[in-house]
Specification:
four-stranded antiparallel β-sheet; alpha/beta; 14 strands; eight-stranded parallel β-sheet; about 350 residues; elongated; homotetramer
Amino acid sequence: MIIILKPNPAPKQLESLKEWIKKMGLDIHVSAGAHSTILGLVGDTSVVDIDLISAMEIVEKVQRIQEPYKAANRKFHPNDTIIQFGNVKIGGGHFAMIAGPCSVESRAQIMEVAEKVQQAGAGALRGGAFKPRTSPYAFQGLEADGIRLLLDAKKQTGLPIVTEIMDLSQLHLFDEVDVIQVGARNMQNFLLLKELGKTKKPILLKRGFSNTIQEFLMSAEYIMSGGNPNVILCERGIRTIETATRNTLDLSAIPVVKELSHLPIIVDPSHATGHAKYVKPMSLAAVVSGADGLMIEVHNDPPCALCDGQQSITPEAFAQLAKGVEIMRESMAKEQAI
Amino acid sequence: MIIILKPNPAPKQLESLKEWIKKMGLDIHVSAGAHSTILGLVGDTSVVDIDLISAMEIVEKVQRIQEPYKAANRKFHPNDTIIQFGNVKIGGGHFAMIAGPCSVESRAQIMEVAEKVQQAGAGALRGGAFKPRTSPYAFQGLEADGIRLLLDAKKQTGLPIVTEIMDLSQLHLFDEVDVIQVGARNMQNFLLLKELGKTKKPILLKRGFSNTIQEFLMSAEYIMSGGNPNVILCERGIRTIETATRNTLDLSAIPVVKELSHLPIIVDPSHATGHAKYVKPMSLAAVVSGADGLMIEVHNDPPCALCDGQQSITPEAFAQLAKGVEIMRESMAKEQAI
Amino acid sequence: MIIILKPNPAPKQLESLKEWIKKMGLDIHVSAGAHSTILGLVGDTSVVDIDLISAMEIVEKVQRIQEPYKAANRKFHPNDTIIQFGNVKIGGGHFAMIAGPCSVESRAQIMEVAEKVQQAGAGALRGGAFKPRTSPYAFQGLEADGIRLLLDAKKQTGLPIVTEIMDLSQLHLFDEVDVIQVGARNMQNFLLLKELGKTKKPILLKRGFSNTIQEFLMSAEYIMSGGNPNVILCERGIRTIETATRNTLDLSAIPVVKELSHLPIIVDPSHATGHAKYVKPMSLAAVVSGADGLMIEVHNDPPCALCDGQQSITPEAFAQLAKGVEIMRESMAKEQAI
Amino acid sequence: MIIILKPNPAPKQLESLKEWIKKMGLDIHVSAGAHSTILGLVGDTSVVDIDLISAMEIVEKVQRIQEPYKAANRKFHPNDTIIQFGNVKIGGGHFAMIAGPCSVESRAQIMEVAEKVQQAGAGALRGGAFKPRTSPYAFQGLEADGIRLLLDAKKQTGLPIVTEIMDLSQLHLFDEVDVIQVGARNMQNFLLLKELGKTKKPILLKRGFSNTIQEFLMSAEYIMSGGNPNVILCERGIRTIETATRNTLDLSAIPVVKELSHLPIIVDPSHATGHAKYVKPMSLAAVVSGADGLMIEVHNDPPCALCDGQQSITPEAFAQLAKGVEIMRESMAKEQAI
C-alpha cells in the first residue's frame, strides 16, 4: 500500500499516522521527494482500512498494491480449490452442471425434472424454496415444504441439491442441503456471510447484479475468514445499459477471477440472459471461457412456470445443451494441448 | 395492462389465458386486428405477475399501463403522507434534518455530536450500531452497545433516534428506536421488509445503489402491504460510470417520486457524494428539488472517524449548512407563491 | 405500434392525430375500452417518430411492436448477409480474422506484422492511421502516411486492409481501403454514416461504448438506408460498473443480433478486455457464441506500442490463438450437427 | 506520477525507462523498498502517456497524482474564467439563461420563441439547425436555412445565438453564430475539438452521455490546447440504470467541476430529464448547486414540436421558471454571505 501525503504534512499528525501503522504490524518505507512524501507500507495490508487513511487531513491519496483479500487470493494459495458434494467435484479441472427449476412447485414437478436432468448428465439438482420477488403480490415459494420436496428428489435420484437461503432465520432448514446458495441480492449481506463462514458446507455465492469482481471476492473472503473454505463463485450477469437481455453476462469475469483467485467459478446463463433462446450459446461460451460449471434453469413446462418461465428450458433442450457442453469440453482439452 | 398476442394464437391456449385472467377478478377487452390481437386487462392489475404472462407461448409482449404498486401509489392516495416521530414531522410540507455520525464509537462521541447537531437544528439523531463493511477486517460497529448509547443520547437530548437494522435477528433490539433504517444493500431483502411491515414504526428505506425508482417503490409496497404505512424514502445516490463522487446523487428522483407516490422522500448527500466538501451544495440543491428532509453525517473529529470519515462534516459545518437550508426553505416558499 | 390514449381525449385532437397517421400511409385500428382507448397502427411504422407522438397531450404511452429498423431487420431479410472483400467472406457461415496493430507506426512495423498475421491465418490486416486520443498530448497517428503504409502492406501480402475513418474530410484517402471502420465514438455520427451509405464499400461499424443493441442496429440502418448494404457489426464491449477489464464484453449481443438482424457480427476482444492475457479466452468464447469473425490487436513489440500496448498480443500468441479458433470452429460444426 | 515496478525489474529495461522519462523533461525520484521499487516523476506529467508506461513489462501499476489536463486545471489558473458573448457573461459570478426550441422549424416559430424568451429574461437564443436523429426516418433539421433563421432572430431581438455543429464541413456556416455548441455525441470527436480550438469563438461543450468528469475536462483541454480558452461546459445527464428520466442529471458534477477547473459550467435540465414537468425543479436545484447558467428548451407549441416536444416547456412556463431562478440566485447570495 502506498500513501501519498499532501505537501508539508504536519509533523505531529505524520508521527501519529506512522505509529498507528506500526501498531498493525506493518513496516513503513518513507520516500521524501521534493514535492510530496510517499509512505510505502510493507506487510499484510489486507487488514488496513483504506477509507480511514484516506480521510486523514495529511493524506492526498492511498493506493493499494496488494488486493484487499487474502484467503481468496491466488497469490497465497496458487493451486485451484476443488469443492466436492455428493459425487460432484467442481474446480481444478472438474466441471459440473447444476440444473433444475427456478422454484419448486410440486412433488410431481420436481421429481420429473430431477430424473430428466440426471439422465441428461446434470451432477446436482437446483430448485428455489424461498422466492421473495420484486412484487409482494407474486408467488413467493413453497418455503420449508419446498426444501422437503428437494430432499425427496435427492433420495430418489441421488443427486445432491443446491438451494438458496434468504435469511439467517432459515439456516436450521438447510441441514441436509448439500450446497447453500447465496443470491445476488444477498452478496453483501455480511451477517449472513459470516454465519455461513461458521459452517463447513459448500456455499454457492452469486455475484451481485451491480458489484465488481473485487467486491465479489471480498464477499467470498467474508465466508472464508470465518473458517469455511468451500466457496463456489457464480457469475450471473450485471445490470448495464443494455435491455435486450435481463442482465449482461460478464464472461470476461471468468479469466479475471481465475487469475485473481483459486476458487472455482460457474456461470448461470439463465438469469443472465433472461431468455431461454440465449441459454445454449451462452452456456457453450461459458465453458470455453474457462468456467468450472454451469447452473441452468430447467422446467418441465416453461410457459406454466410460476417464476421466471421465460428463461427456463425444457429437459429435452437441456439434454441437447449437455451434449454441446461435452463437445466444448473436449475441444478445450484439445486447445490446451496445442 | 395490455397483452399483445403473437399472430394466430392457438385457440385453446388463448382460452386458458383468458380464464386465468378472469379468475384474478379482471375484465378483458379483446381487440382483434388484422396482424395481431390485443387483450386489454381492466381492474386491479397490481396483483398480476407480468413475468408469468410474458413467458406464455402465445404472448408477444406485455405492457403495464398502471404501476405495479398500489399502497405507495399517489393515484390511490392523492394527499402527501406525513410521518411523525418524536417532535419531528416529515412530508406534506414538513421538513426535517437527521444528523449524526456514521458509526456510534463511544459515549463521549455520540453525546457530543447529539448536543451539537441539536443546537444547530437537527430534528433527529442518526448513528450506526451495526456496520458490516465490505472488508471482514474493518471495524464492524458496537452492535447492541451502540444502540444503548444512542438511547442514552436520546434521553439526554430528547432527539428521536434513527439507526439501521441489518438482519431480522436484531429486531428485538429496536423496541425503543424511533425510526428503523433499511440500508441500500437491504432494499430488496424482502423477508426483512415483510417483517418491518408488521410493526408500526417509521421505516427509513434507502434506495439500493443500482435500483430504479420503480423497484424502490415496490420495496416500499412490501412494507406497506404488510400493514405499516410509515415509510420514509431516502435517495442516496446510484452507481454509475462516474467515479469522482462515491455514487451519483439522483436529484431528479425527488420530483419523480413526488409525482408517483405520496410518501415523503429525503436525501443523504453524505453517502451519495462521499466527500465532505460536496455535502453542502448537494444539501441545498436537494431542498430546492423538493426533498422533505436531509440525512447528514456529522462527526466531532472526521479524520479519526472509524468509518466513512471522508464524507463526514464537523458540527460547525453542519450548523452553517443548517442556516443555508433555512434560507433555501424560505426561498422555496417564496417561489411557490409566485 | 400501439398508442394508448389518456382517458377522454379531446375529439378534435384525436381527429388530427388520426389524420396525421393516415397521411403516413398507415391504417388505424381503434379499440375503445371502458377506461382507455387504444390505437393500433398497421403498416410500415419504422417511419413513425415515436417521440413526436409521445409528446402529444392526449397520448398516455406509445409502444412499438415492430422494431424501428427495416433494412437491417431479419424479418424482412431472413437470409444471412455475406460480405466479401479481397478473398475474405464474413457472415452466412463464413468466418474471418482481422489482425494488426492498433496504430501504424512505421514501414518496418506494419510489414512485419502483416506477414506474420497472414502466415498465422488472418484474412485481413487492420491498423490505425488516425488515432485521436483522450489526451491532446498523446500520439495521434501517422494519418495519410499511415494509410499509404497500409496500402504498401496490402500490395506485398495481398491482405485486404481495414482502417478507421474519423471524419468525413478524410474520405478521399480511403479510395483503395477495402473496409472502412467506424469507431465506437462515431457510432452515432449520423452525418458520417449517411455519407458512408453512399459508397458501396464494406463498413465495419463498432458498437458505441454505452449504446444498446437497438441503437447499434439503428446506426447500421443509417448506412443501409443510404444504399449501402455492406455493414459488418462489431461488438467491442460496453462501459459498466466493472473496472477489472477496460470494458465489459457483451457476448450475449451475438445471439441477440443474430436473431434480430441478418448482418454479420464480429468481436474485438482486445479493446473489450484491454489486457493481452484475456484476449485468447474471450476470442474462443466469441467463436462459440456464434460470432462471424474476430478483430485482434497484434503488435511485434507490445511493450513499445505507441498506443494500447497493454492489450496487444505478439504474432506468436496470435498464431496460437488462431489454432484455438480453428478447434472451436470445428467443435461448433460438430455441435450443430447433433 | 508514481510508477510502481514489479519485483526485480530487468536492469536494462529499467535504464531505458528512466532515460525515456528524462527525455520528456521530467525528474525521477527512485525509492527502492524491500518488495518493490517506486519511481516518482516530478515535473509536468500531463504530457506523459500513461497507457504506454502501463504496458511495459517491468511496470506493475501507474498512478497519476496530478490531473492529466493543464489548461483547464484550476491549479494552474485559480481564478474563474468569464466568457462573454453579446451582452451575456457566464462564469465568475455571472449567470445566464440560454433558451429556445430544440429545432428551428420555421421563421414564425423562431421569431415568436425568441421574443418571448427575451421578455422572460433569457440572455441568449438556442435552436438546432442540424438534427441528425437516432432514426434515419425522423426529421433532420432545416440545416443552413435554420442558421439563417436564427441569425434573423438575432437581428430582430439582439439576442446572441447558440447552435450546434455536427461536422467540420459545416464550420463555414457558423461565422456569425455567437456560441458553437458541441453535442454530447461529439464530446470525443477530437478532430472537431481541435479545429474549434483554432477559432476564438465561445464553445459550449456538452458532456457525453457516458463520459466521466475527467474525460469531459480532457475534451475541454483539446479545445484549449489549440489556443481557444473560451469553453463553457454543460452538464446534461448521464446514462444510468434509471429509466424514469431520459438521463440521470448529475448535479454533483457542478461542485466537482468547480473544484477541478476554472471553466464555467451550465446545466441543461431539458435533455437530462426528458420531461417538461421536471425541468423547473431541476433548474432551481442546478442554480443552488452552483451552476453558472441554464440551457432550457422552450417551444411555442410543445405537442407539435418536430423534435423532443416531450421535454420542451412553453414560453409562459419559462417566464415562471425565470422568476424562480431569480429567487434562487438571491438566496444563494444570502447563503454565501452567512
